[in-house]
Amino acid sequence: MSKSANKSTGTPATVALARTGLPHTLHPYVHDPRSRYFGEEAAAALHVDPARVFKTLMVELTSGPEPLVTAVIPADNHLDLKQIAALSKAKRAALADPAVAQRVTGFVRGGISPLGQKRQTPVIIDQSAAAAPTIFVSGGRRGLSVEMAPDDLVRATHGRLGTISRPGLHWS
């Protein structure tokens, strides 16, 4: 796998990842501006099983130690809000408003990456990632995915694994 981003695809996410020295491969693809389901779009464009393409969701917590966490779940699943609240020691969890997510991460909806966020939040990656040799996450813009080993993503984000999703499409 490649270890560096070229100038045409450099984003805060790919720059942060390159600094770690962890192996990864960048996969640019043509983004359709009409697409509403970015993870599925990436899976189709890259000819990859949607279970290996992970979407990044920003989650607001109520009465927890952190106001926001980053959830990384398979594109073909939806977020289990009760489970992420429990793992985050919070009373409740809700998807963050897209404007809040953009302000905190520096990335637009559909391009949010768990890597290189403007203000890094705790990262929880769905346990299902551990079953794959590599997974795909956003490279920090629509039309760019990063492929890497799940353990390396945990290391790069200082994240942790947890069961935070359930099968089902288009809910989150």
From TrEMBL:
Keyword set, alphabetical order: Lyase, Protein biosynthesis
EC number, UniProt record: 4.2.-.-
All residue ranges annotated as the YbaK/aminoacyl-tRNA synthetase-associated domain in the record: 40-155
Gene3D superfamilies: YbaK/aminoacyl-tRNA synthetase-associated domain
One example GO MF annotation: aminoacyl-tRNA deacylase activity
InterPro entries: Prolyl-tRNA_editing_YbaK/EbsC, YbaK/aa-tRNA-synt-asso_dom_sf, YbaK/aa-tRNA-synth-assoc-dom
Gene Ontology biological process terms, A to Z: translation
UniProt keyword Phosphoprotein present: no
PANTHER family named in the record: CYS-TRNA(PRO)_CYS-TRNA(CYS) DEACYLASE YBAK (PTHR30411:SF0), CYTOPLASMIC PROTEIN (PTHR30411)
Family statement: Belongs to the prolyl-tRNA editing family. YbaK/EbsC subfamily.
Protein name: Cys-tRNA(Pro)/Cys-tRNA(Cys) deacylase
Species annotation: Propionibacterium freudenreichii
